[in-house]
Amino acid sequence: NNLDTLYRQVIMDHYKNPRNKGALADESLTIDMNNPTCGDRIQIHLQVNNGIVEDAKFEGEGCSISLSSASMMTQAIKGKPVEEALKMSKIFSNMMLGEETDQEDIDLGDIEALQGVSKFPARIKCATLAWKAMEKGVDENSR
Ligand code: FES
Ligand code: FES
Prior knowledge:
alpha+beta, Sufe protein. Chain: A, three-stranded antiparallel sheet, 17% strand, globular, iron-sulfur cluster binding, iron ion binding, SUF system NifU family Fe-S cluster assembly protein, NIF_FeS_clus_asmbl_NifU_N
């Protein structure tokens, strides 16, 4: 249907024109994570100061779902408080479980385009890879 087509276009746009692709300065956090089911590997770079994600970038190789998800994730969390980034990650993981997402006051923006992935269990790890890496980085940073 039309919504699926729109969502597919959003995913392909992030894949072909990735937002925030590249590295950050040396003092930023880098989280390297692979998808064990396929061996694809991505790096998420985060600059977190005073509880704010000041910058977020990604690098790596993967399928269209994993790379578009990384692009959307970095776009979504940039400039946001860590708490909000984690909340988005929770909402995203609920979405991947096919659960109703209670979006509350959070604008998911382009991320919504990935909700169809929940119908393809083999691809869920692709979609959540960047989010898991971000969560790990934030967790390490707060220790
Ligand atoms: Fe082919 Fe991930 S793109 S399995
Ligand atoms: Fe490797 Fe999707 S097939 S991350």
